[in-house]
């Protein structure tokens, strides 16, 4: 049976060879931007279309940088919708964990407003708005590229996120960057540096650089986990080992390692099942590379019930098309059902 969530991957091209690239040339930037735009806009900005993550898995340059027009500043007030939790459908109060910045930069008639930032393990989630005087058509939105620095060190980043137009001139995005091998303890100096922004295939260059200090210590302290050891193998021989389940106010995650990586034959993988209260539960792939993968709970069925004590999940996989185009392959069971005892969280 086809899965509606992953139909959002239609027409998205993934180039595994580019996982560790330090930058992209102009042609590649246009192609990546166009593919992300399709994943976001064809659904007319659903409440939570974070499945765009798979389209830009393990990009070295994240998707964020933006600009804002001077005359458009009146449209960029701090809206209640700028709250990361509200945008992602998270019901818990995240005030203790986020850094509220509310900073804006205008260059070349485009304004970017950096709203909030939350650090969770080796992930950084950013909320920002992009505004200009140009009225957006129904299927238009702003996209950008940026480099992230932590304590002066440039980081390779993968990215996943959601976007929606909040008025005729403004695109709001919440992007989560996977910052592997970064220690997010203590006070951190963060810089988000962007030099280009896109609307359709039109690039505008400028300088939209944000610098700020933040810390991920509190959310790290409040994160509970369960050690896992569940394995499954795809039809191409690539093996996943589910190693850890974590839970905090941002949601639930399952960390996995990958062995026998296959470059030419790739699959979309998800974990789905039920809790002991009968609620449907799905984990979608937030990012994946040659060695690791991260699955996050999909809020399309609502947040994980806080009274749930047991999760029963089964891995499913569908093969990506060899060429860019619609993903017609069905999801098939890729392993045996396994159980996570949530009472073991500590």
Automatic annotation (TrEMBL):
InterPro entries: DUF4179 (IPR025436), DUF5643 (IPR040680). It holds the Pfam family DUF5643. The keyword Zinc does not apply. Keywords: Membrane, Transmembrane, Transmembrane helix. The chain crosses the membrane at residues 50-73. Residues 42-131 form the DUF4179 domain. Residues 223-340 form the DUF5643 domain. The keyword Transmembrane applies. This is DUF4179 domain-containing protein. It comes from Clostridium weizhouense.
